[in-house]
Each structure stands twice: as structure tokens, then as C-alpha cells.
Amino acid sequence: MKIDVIIPVYRPTEKLHKVLYGLSRQTYLPERIILLHTRDGIKLDVSVCKDRVSVTEIPIPEKEFDHGRTRDLGIRMSDADIVVMMTQDAVPADPFLLEKLSEVLNEHPDAVAAYARQIPDQNCGLLEKYTRVFNYPPKSQIKSQKDLPKLGIKTYFCSNVCAAYRRGVYLELGGFPHPVIFNEDLIFAAGAIQNGWKIIYKADARVIHSHEYTYRELIRRNFDQGVSQACHPEIFGKVKSEKEGMHLICTLVKKLLKERKYLQIMQLFVESGCKYLGYQMGKHYGRLPESLIMKLTLNRNYWIERSDEDV
Predict the structure, then answer these.
(1) What's the pLDDT tens digit per position in 71-83?
(2) Which residues of 138-159 are buried (b: 16+ CB within 10 A; e: fewer)?
């Protein structure tokens, strides 16, 4: 099956070169890598992969960048059977990433998407490391509507950090929502599952991807998370995400207590407090003044576009 890889490029760092190099050394090479580039950040050097893979750069004005629309544009430019969405900082962990993702979709024709396991960078902090392991365990999983009572919101979880989609089915289902501030992948996956399709977590398809957020960044990121949930009550009004957050905290506290990492427990509580504060403000953004919203959000373009639509 023909594969294209689509990467939105927004203020990239040198890590993007590692991503491109890793993609050009896959056992199953993509037909094309489509870069939707705002032209900010480093100057792109695609020579690291150009000898083996065709690279197409599409300029995107920064003010028009949107989590859903930009990715949807890339998918509609492709003519591949499978499109793999990736972020500019998700480095393939080995040469088998695309092979594993395409392989599992071939094996399960009732699945619309398969997403990869995220392995923390070896230099990341302990809490980030444990959180990645919690969210991306070593065992694969096939998720459908029948899993909702057991898995809750995790049933719909899918990550565009690295996820493969059947392009034809994606288009039939209407694609990613836009404008969207966050969670375009989860919102699409929820709609797909509600229409009878399955989502696969493929644990042996792996990318190296982790972050170290400041407390301010945690508040802002989770503000956008809360806004996303408030704007999609058809999903989040029926399946709550708070329960999964508490499960994560309890799991990490038990692990840290066992290892006598008491300072990390304090750090966990502070970080969790920042996340919850941002999340709750986002869920109730309608009560906040516009000036505060624009300070809290990581996606100012989303609010500008909403204002333009209201006019």
C-alpha cells in the first residue's frame, strides 16, 4: 500500500532533521513526505532524505495554521492509500515504524487508524518518563465502541504525534474538525468509533517523543485542552476525562512512593495543580475576558478565526 507522511512544520528545531533522516531509512519507504511549513524557525535542509524520498514543501501562512485544517489540507493533497501524520519532533525509534503501522492496518480492515507508541527521550525528567510509559504501555490494543465502559475516554485516544490513517475512510468520515484548538485526532477517532470503525494502538511502532514543560506552559496547554472539551460536548459531555487524570496521578504516586522519590511526588502535585487550573479555566472560558483568554491560550489563531466568524 502506498504511504505518504504529512508533517505540519511550525517554528521547527534541529530535531526535524532527525525526523526526516529517520523516515528516509525506513524498511517501508514513504512515497512522499509533505511538509506544511509556516517558514518560521530554522531553514529546512531536506537533503538528509531527498536522495531516497520525494519531499514536497507547502507554504502555510502562520496566521492560517490550524491543528485540524492544516493536517486536513495535507491529507487531501495526498493520493496515497495510507497517510501517516507526524509532528516535527517525533523521531522514528527504528527503521520499522512505517512497516509496523501499515502492516497492522492491512491485518485489520475494520480499523481506520493506528497510532504509535511514544518513547521518552533518555534525557527527559522522571515524571515525564513515567507519564509516557503510563499513556503508551508496551502492549498493543484494538479499541472499539464496546470498550467504552472499561476504558472511558481512552477508547477514543489517538495521537497525531504519529498515527496512520486509511485516507479513503478518513475522507468518507469528513476528516479532522476545523477550526479546532486541540484534540483533532481524538475528536476524529471518537466519530470513527461511533460509526463502527476501530482504532489501534501499535506498541511496537515507536517514536521518540517527550517534553519538558514549565508550569506556565502546563497551564496554557491544559487551558486549550479544557476549551477543546467544552466545545465538543457530544464527546466529552458523555465520557469524562477527569477520571483518567486521577488514575494517572494515583499510579505515579504509588510508583514514586515505592522508589522513595519524595521530591518528585511534591513536583507531581504542583504540576497536576497547574494542569487542573488550566483545564478548569479552559472548560469555563466563556466566563473569562478576552484579554485573559489570549494570554492563556497557546493557539491565538483559533480565537482570531472564531472572532472573524462571529463577525
Answers:
(1) 999 999 999 999 9
(2) eeeeebeeebbeeebbbbbbbb
